[in-house]
Amino acid sequence: MERQITVTGMSCEGCEQSVEDALEDVPGVDGAEADRESETATVEGDADEDALVRAVEDAGYEASA
Predict the structure, then answer these.
(1) Does the keyword Cell inner membrane belong to this entry (predicted)?
(2) Distance in angstroms (rounded) separating the CA atoms of residues 60 and 6
(3) Which of 8, 42, 43, 63 is the most exposed place for a label (fewest CB within 10 A)?
(4) What is the helix (H) or strand (E) element at residue 44, kind and residue range?
């Protein structure tokens, strides 16, 4: 299953990588790709949306499902 979440606060490639790493650590995530220009992250897998948002926020960014 693919889903998108909104992520704000990314300003560089390193930020995108940080968001991707945080999301990929969530159980049930098979892959993640962040895009600072569209302020989104696309997540593959069946992880809980709340867990995805928490992971991004714990990494220092704002997120919403």
Answers:
(1) no
(2) 14
(3) 8
(4) strand 40-45
Question: Do residues 53 and 65 touch, judged by C-beta distance below 8 A?
Answer: yes
pLDDT tens-digit series, residues 1-35 = 999 999 999 999 999 999 999 999 999 999 999 99
Q: Two tokens at 31?
A: 């892959």
Residue 21: both structure tokens together: 């790493």
Q: Where are the domains of the chain?
A: 2-64
- Looking at domain 2-64, its CATH architecture is 2-Layer Sandwich (3.30)
How are beta strands 2-8 and 62-64 bridged, if at all?
antiparallel
- pLDDT tens across 28-65, in order? 999 999 999 999 999 999 999 999 999 999 999 999 99
